[in-house]
Design goal:
The complex is a heterodimer. Chain A is an alpha/beta fold. Chain A has a domain of 89 residues: Immunoglobulin-like (Sandwich). Chain A is 39% helix and 26% strand. Chain A is built from 3 helices and 8 strands. In chain A, the strands form 3 sheets. Chain A has a 3-stranded mixed beta sheet with strand order 1-3-6, with no helix packed on it. Chain A has a 3-stranded mixed beta sheet with strand order 2-8-7, with no helix packed on it. In chain A, strand 4 and strand 5 form a beta hairpin. In chain A, helix 1 crosses helix 3. By secondary structure, chain B is of the alpha+beta class. Chain B folds into 2 domains: 30 residues; 164 residues, Glutaredoxin (3-Layer(aba) Sandwich), CATH 3.40.30.10. Helices cover 38% and strands 26% of the residues of chain B. In chain B, helix 2 crosses helix 5. Chain B is globular. The chains are: A alpha/beta, B alpha+beta. Chains A and B meet through strand 5, strand 6 and strand 7 of A and strand 1 of B. Strand 6 of chain A pairs antiparallel with strand 1 of chain B, so a sheet runs across the interface.
Chain lengths: 158, 200
């Protein structure tokens, strides 16, 4: 009798977890995607030039930046250093920022002396449609958040 | 108080509140440029080149006008002709406002581009366009001031091309470097930004 109840309880729990997972997936696929800010911010910290002069290889901008239309489609570059810096496609003065919006999904290439290849690419993805693309976008965003969180934790503990 | 008065008493403050709210939104939501914007803008670096119109070419000459400045060369196969055709189209679309806009095309190929060559080349796009030529070291210094890249690339068939920054610089009527439009935008985007910058 007790075993049967335990089996029923387990089954009930399994069904409940499945229902919850399906509901979460449904929400993830169909709920409208939003973002707190559309800016993808990259900053040159103060002292970067001095570090480079001292021989440090300081990489701030990746060779390829991925953006998503309607969610994260403004590249915001800010120079907090005390010398002018070529940062991506623009020469940015100390304390200055460069805000570049994108309105079309495409791959954009910019000549950039800050990269070894001499080029920087910005890949702008279309706004994820409802369904699988939206679900996949949310999954990647969740992974990104988890990585950021893990990085912060390891910084604190080290 | 009649029913009509009551409705009016209710509607007037509501309409006022809605108008104020709309105004507040209008004031705060400044229309954004399509180009990349520098904040705060700095004074665009001055230069002294030989103009394709036979005069000295510098920014001070165009104070009061909106300057669209691009870098390129007359032997360019794709990027420069496209950019110049787009800018010519934008000027046409501007109508009478085109008079407040000056396109400046600075060569990155001083070996082959002199003022006469630039004049003949630019005339195919728009007679008002002015080209800038100069000594290699003068042009190199100017490129450095604007963060412009230009590298000679040998061609398999002989000769050479120049890989160069393809963005267009937008310099306002006070001579401030306000924005940079990446290559690939159409004439409508230029017209949009030009109108906004001229209205300021």
């Amino acid at each position: 009798m007790t075993k049967r109840w335990a089996r029923r309880g387990g089954l009930f729990l399994l069904v409940w977890v499945l229902v919850l997972a399906l509901a979460a997936a449904g929400w993830g696929a169909l709920a409208p995607l939003t973002a707190e800010s559309r800016d993808a911010l990259f900053e040159i910290p103060a002292g970067t030039w001095a570090r480079r002069m001292a021989g440090d290889k300081v990489e701030i901008l990746p060779d390829t930046i991925r953006l998503t239309l309607g969610l994260n489609d403004v590249l915001l570059l800010r120079n907090l250093d005390d010398v002018p810096q070529v940062f991506g496609p623009a020469l940015i003065m100390p304390g200055q920022s460069f805000r570049l919006p994108f309105e079309q999904a495409s791959t954009y290439s910019f000549a950039c002396t800050a990269h070894a290849s001499g080029q920087m690419n910005v890949v702008v993805d279309p706004h994820p449609a409802a369904g699988w693309p939206a679900l996949r976008f949310r999954w990647y965003r969740l992974q990104g958040l988890a990585r950021t969180w893990a990085g912060r934790v390891s910084e604190k503990t080290s | 108080m009649t029913v009509l008065n009551r409705v009016a008493a209710l509607l007037v403050p509501l309409t006022l509140a809605a108008t104020l709210a709309t105004l507040a939104v209008t004031v705060h939501a400044a229309p954004a440029l399509k180009a990349g914007v520098f904040e705060p803008p700095r004074q665009a670096p001055e230069f002294a080149l030989r103009g394709s119109d036979g005069n000295e070419l510098g920014l001070a000459r165009y104070r009061g006008k909106l300057v669209l400045m691009s870098f390129g060369f007359t032997h360019c196969a794709a990027v420069c002709p496209t950019t110049l055709a787009t800018l010519a189209q934008a000027r046409q679309a501007l109508g009478p406002q085109a008079g407040a806009v000056q396109v400046v095309f600075v060569t990155v190929d001083p070996e082959r581009d002199d003022p006469a060559q630039l004049k003949a080349y630019l005339a195919a796009f728009d007679l008002s366009f002015v080209g800038g030529a100069g000594k290699p070291e003068v042009l190199a210094a100017m490129r450095k001031n604007y963060g412009v890249v230009a590298n000679k690339v040998p061609m398999p068939s002989g000769g050479y091309a120049v890989d160069h920054t393809s963005s267009i610089f937008l310099i306002d009527r006070d001579g401030k470097l306000r924005a940079m439009m990446p290559y690939g935008h159409d004439a409508r985007d230029f017209v949009h930004d030009i109108k906004l910058l001229l209205a300021q």
